[in-house]
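Milestone 3.1: sequence recovery, worked example.
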């Protein structure tokens, strides 16, 4: 449900975590960039890093510290393989974890991938008035998260509540 409040465009950074993709083959990151633009938000940064805890933390820490970045969406590294380490890398940076985000994501993805959704470790949190969402690496998972959660929660007009009001842009 949207209200008559004005739309507040966010400045959003997109991080792809992958040992095998580059920016040209990163369909998940590209999907997110396209959806952000269509929704009226601005792309602050787009970076691809290897699945390395310290590279992820370095990039995301800089974005969290940057007052011009209001939201961060990561794609990749949330599974159970040996190299998947996005939750371990980024949850220590959160001031508050958004527990319901991972729960709702897994609920929505059940229709697409069945019980395999239990292997998704999608997480979200707030850090320094920046909302952070960590999504799986598949384009389908990014679509599920965008269409089922993020499009509304990053829209200042969505009622009864959204995350824009918790960011610097919404203050």
């Amino acid at each position: 449900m949207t209200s008559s409040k004005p739309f507040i465009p966010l400045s959003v950074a997109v991080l792809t975590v992958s040992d095998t993709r580059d920016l040209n083959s990163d369909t998940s990151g590209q999907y997110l960039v396209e959806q952000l633009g269509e929704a009226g938000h601005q792309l602050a940064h787009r970076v691809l890093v290897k699945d390395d805890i310290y590279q992820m933390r370095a990039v995301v820490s800089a974005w969290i510290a940057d007052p011009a970045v209001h939201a961060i969406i990561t794609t990749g590294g949330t599974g159970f393989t040996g190299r998947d380490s996005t939750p371990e890398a980024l949850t220590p940076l959160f001031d508050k974890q958004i527990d319901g985000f991972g729960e709702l994501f897994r609920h929505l993805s059940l229709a697409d991938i069945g019980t395999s959704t239990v292997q998704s470790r999608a997480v979200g949190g707030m850090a320094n008035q920046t909302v952070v969402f960590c999504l799986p690496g598949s384009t389908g998972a990014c679509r599920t998260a965008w269409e089922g959660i993020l499009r509304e929660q990053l829209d200042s007009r969505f009622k009864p509540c959204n995350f824009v009001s918790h960011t610097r842009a919404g203050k």
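The mean pLDDT is 95. The two ends are 21 Å apart (CA to CA).
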